[in-house]
Amino acid sequence: MGVIARGRIVLGRHPLPRSTRRTAAEAAIVLAAAVVGIVIGASLERSHASTDAATPPAAALAPKPGAKPIPKTGIVTSATPSTLRALSNALGHPLYWSGPQPRYKYELTLTPTAQRVYLRYLPPGVPLGSPRAGFLSIGTYTVQNAVAALQTQARKPGGVSLRLPHGAVGYYSSAKPTSVYLAYPRTNEQIEVFDPVPSVALQTVKSGSIRPVP
Fold first, then answer.
1. What pLDDT digit, counting tens, does each position of 98-113 carry?
2. What is the distance between the alpha carbons of residues 141 and 191, in angstroms, rounded to a whole number?
3. DSSP per-residue string spanning 94-119
4. pLDDT, averaged across the chain
5. Which residues pair with 107 in a beta bridge?
6. What average pLDDT does this structure show over 1-20?
7. Any bridge partners for residue 106, and if so which?
8. Binning pLDDT at 50, 70 and 90, where does residue 32 land?
């Protein structure tokens, strides 16, 4: 799963200067731990930074949804609608989902800088942190002028633009239809809807069910 920002899809995480990165990451972890009510049992892995930084810009147009469904670092925990709502309030921006599915487990992943939040719908019997990519996933990313970023991407070869319910603007690449992106006007949140079945991802977005956690 990747973020489209300024007309490109950004894979992985951007390394910050060590002092800034540590401050941002630790602040995000303390915040999420307090809101979600979990105990962090492992320190952040920082060895991934050099690898991610080496990813060439040319790879930006070839995201591999599901290749890394779980970020290497950050908080992974089970969530409920109430904890998602509390986390949204604490972060100061909406978190998006596809509505309640009572039989499913909600898996929440918060990356160290808190700029990306992932919610996966796990069916019964699938453990948290499963490396399998066969589940509906909703990513909320902090992106300035999210609608403009999607519109720029949609104008590129293979881009497909979408007009969606509630005034949302959407986009997907015909080469990677398993990820459909959308954004609402006058917001700085970009939403990615991933499903291993492209028609499911597209229909989920078209249905208008992708809304902020109430």
1. 999 989 999 999 988 7
2. 6
3. --EES---TTSEEEEEE-TTSSEEEE
4. 75
5. 78, 120
6. 44
7. 79, 121
8. low
Is 4 in contact with 143 (CB distance < 8 Å)? yes
**Global pTM?**
0.71
Q: Cα angle at 161 between 159 and 162, to 5 degrees?
A: 150
Q: Which of 47-72 are b and which e, b meaning 16 or more Cβ less than 10 Å from the residue's Cβ?
A: eebeeeeeeeeeebbebebbeebbbe
What is each CA distance from 17 to 23, 24, 110, 162, 203, in whole angstroms?
A: 10, 10, 20, 38, 41
Residue 10 CB coordination number (10 Å)? 19
HSE on the CB side for 113, CA within 13 Å?
16
Rounded to 5 degrees, what are φ and ψ at 132?
-65, 145
Using a pLDDT cut of 70, give the percent of the chain over it: 66
Q: At what angle do helices 81-91 and 18-36 cross, to 10 degrees?
A: 140
* Beta pairing partners, 117: 110, 140
